[in-house]
Amino acid sequence: MAQLNTAKFLLNWFEKFEKKGICDAWASMKWLSLHAVPNLRNFLSNTDSPQDIRDWQKLSKLQLTIKERETLEQYFERRLNHEPVQYIIKEWDFYGRTFEMEPPVLICRPETEQMVDLIISSIKSQQQQQKTRDPFSFLEVGVGSGVIMTTLACEIPNAFGVGIDYNPKCIQLTQRNLQRQGVPSQRYELLQSDILEWGRDSKVCKRFANQFDLIVSNPPYVFTREMKGLDKSVVEWEDWRALDGGPHGLDVVECILGNSFWLLKNSTLSSVWLETHADHAVMIQNLEKENKFLTKKKLILTRVYSDWSQIDRFLQFSLLQA
What we know:
Elements: H1 6-20, H2 25-36, H3 41-44, H4 56-61, H5 66-80, H6 85-89, E1 91-94, E2 97-100, H7 110-130, E3 136-141, H8 147-155, E4 159-165, H9 168-180, E5 188-192, H10 203-207, E6 214-217, H11 232-235, H12 251-263, E7 271-275, H13 280-291, E8 299-306, E9 312-319
Parallel strand pairs: 3-4, 3-6, 4-5, 6-7
Antiparallel strand pairs: 1-2, 7-9, 8-9
Helix pairs in contact: 2-5, 7-8
């Protein structure tokens, strides 16, 4: 065992993070430290800045082994290169479960967790009102790491999910996360497919015609012109195609909405849930007024939900009834 001034060691790295312009410098250092050295939990767990540490003297006396220090230095060096914490520690928590993460698959965000919670509450409320335990089927467009699909499967015991993604890495990672959370293989199906190539006569739409109670997606919705303004940990590491939604952020959103009528069950309870850009709710409402954007797709915008920052983030659509 080697005696190290742990407090000074951590502060020195925190200062390096700040000088390099690392986003969420203290949070990055905290999560990497906790993953590498569990004994730091009592000192760092509930801190948002160095000022929140209550006992610097005790932290200074905490012993780090040579191996622990080497691991921390490796982690911190990678973070200095703007590599996301989630890729460094190879996992992240979502809705109370720990999921495997790997580059360049899109990293799950807290906002998505909020959308999933809204969906689960909606499904359970419908099932209670209908007093039914009939099988519930859903489609996720763009599974990424599989956090949405896996969480819905775990929280809705009678659910069957189909997940699609253009990226084979996403399909493989989702498969591992479903297995990690103990979801039986007979309760899901994963397909490599690109929704930009879908249409009424496409293989996917024909195979799954009118089969789903719900379609959900956290699609690429960033405006192309905004991409360069994102943090380096995003633009240099995460899959651009999972982020860039085109000139108005609607390229994939419109594909999802345009194919939903063929895929949803013909029911007043069928719905589409999307996480979107802050401007999309108003944009879609204006497009509907101008050229029947949704009516042509036989959909209506049922409700707009705000995220924790009071940004219109989640859109719920339902079928337009004749």
